[in-house]
Amino acid sequence: MFSMRYALLLLMASLAAREPLPELTWGAATDGNVPYAFHPDDTDALVGFEKDIVDAIARRIGRQPKAIRNDWDGLVPGVQAGTYDIAINGIEISDDRAKEVDFSIPYFKCYEQIVVRRGGPRPESLAAMSGLRVGTLGQTLALELLENTPGVEAVRYDQELQAYNDLAAGRIDAVLLDVPIAKYYAGPDPRLELIGEPIGEIRYAIALRKGSALKVPIDAALRSMIADGELRRILSKWDLWGPAQASLHGQPPEPLGTPDGYLDYLSRVRDSVSWIEKLARYFSPEALALLAKGASLTLALSLSAMLLAVALGLILALARVYGPTPLSWIATTWIEVIRGTPLLIQTLFLYYGLPNIGIQFPPFVAGVLALGINYAAYEAENYRSGLRGVPRGQLEAALALGLTQRQALRHVIVPQALRVCLPTMTNDFISLLKDSSLVSMITLLELTGSYQRLATQYYDYFLLGLLVAIIYLLLGLPFVRLARQLERNLDGDKAAR
Q1: Which of 30, 416, 431, 434 keeps 20 to 30 A from 242, CA to CA?
Q2: Whether residue 453 sits in one domain with residue 482
Q3: For residues 443-460, b (16+ Cβ closer than 10 Å) or e, as one string?
């Protein structure tokens, strides 16, 4: 009996051990984002000091980490919307953010660093930047400091690499960003130079939803990582341990271990790469797989949204032209409101705004709805023009022959109107295909998002831009050809009659 019970306990323990761990989903802006969480040469892998921190936390609290890409500006809204459990991306603790999300205990302390172009202006303080154009990222302490400094023109960027590229090209006079960013992006660049005294004080922490049950175990995990030296080893690996971290965590200022992560990064960015080598890199299986995945998502998103736009647009047009006055007024108001507001605002509202009232869509569904509803308003106007282009006598004749209004519209009026609108519909689909790039703001990695990831990974927007432009052309061209063939067939049928 004892042996049977023991065997049963072993079996239950074995089954429990095989159960998958619950996920710890974490949001980060992984396009570029060195040294926080970024893609090295292998486009599917993530490395970085914050990635290492998340892995260590997940291990200590019994979770399986899963990264979810988002744009920098959408990280905190993504936490609020429940897109992921936590956000970690050099997120600075601030009073404004603390009103929206909870923060873990801080895990990193640093300051703002001035970077200039060699041979250009050399402002070594905020006051000395008066009269200069200074680049930075949005929603940062650096942006706040620049905007509060008289005479400074703050230039806001979406990605770090863009700011430093513009500085090297002479489009701006300086860049002010967190010292880890400056160390990794500007430090290895011989055209740029880090100057001036440390500015301000920044503390990074993990952002969680208000009242999240994860705050207590995450704080406990961070404290244990500080106590046993794992956090010190992680930061030392990326050459980010120093007096600031020592004072924050009450530990010695000397690094613990060699900066292997930093040295590996330097070896990659300092290697001179020829155009032939760049092309070989972009046509590697990993890069092509990423672009193919982005292209397929773009196509699926665009086709789904266009089907919605056609169906909803036709309903709106029929309601506006043939519906009773109240219905016509509602359709007209809907069309004008949608056409009068930016597509980006509609996309962000659907994905980040509606969860505040309990309505939540997956990213793909939100993208389809945003694009479909927006383009439906434009399709409705196209169809209205087509419907009015059909002589009214045809409707009257159909009614006189005994058809109901619905039958007359279905069999007589609408087919002729759609034939007239076909060229415009084709143009709208091509426009929608290109506008689908906006869904990268709601965590979807479509073709433009794939381009941004590879461009920031390889520090090259030129050759990759040409390649992605060709892919967009190839995606849209078959539909243009198909529409033209359909037009010829319809014209042939019309001539035959």
Answers
A1: 30
A2: yes
A3: bbbbbbbbbbbbbbbbbb
Same domain, 386 and 252: no
Name the one residue in this structure whose structure tokens are 């050759």: 463
Tell whether 29 is covered by a domain: yes
Average pLDDT for runs of 10 along the chain of length 497: 47 53 94 89 82 98 95 91 95 93 98 96 95 94 95 93 94 97 94 94 97 97 97 98 94 94 86 68 82 93 95 91 89 93 94 89 94 95 78 69 73 73 83 90 85 79 88 87 72 53
Q: Give the amino acid at 327.
A: L
Cβ neighbors of 416 (< 8 A, separation 6 or more) are: 386, 389, 390, 394
Q: For residue 479, what are the domain limits?
A: 285-496
How far apart are the C-alpha atoms of 264 and 238, rounded to whole Å? Answer: 9
- Tell me how far apart the terminal alpha carbons of the chain are, to the nearest angstrom: 90
Residues with Cβ within 8 Å of 458's Cβ and at least 6 positions away in sequence, in order, are 278, 281, 282, 464
| Distance between CA atoms of residues 492 and 267, nearest Å | 64
CB under 8 A, 24+ apart: contacts of 428-431:
428/306, 428/309, 428/375, 428/378, 428/379, 428/382, 429/302, 429/306, 429/476, 429/479, 430/476, 430/479, 430/480, 431/375
Structure tokens at 205: 């922490």
The Cα diameter of the chain in Å comes to 94
Q: Tokens 């402002």 belong to which residue?
A: 123
Judge if the upstream peptide bond of residue 35 is cis by omega within 30 degrees of 0. Answer: yes
Distances (CA, A) of 388 to 222, 418, 426: 67, 12, 20
- CATH of residue 400's domain is 1.10.3720.10
Domain presence at residue 13 = no
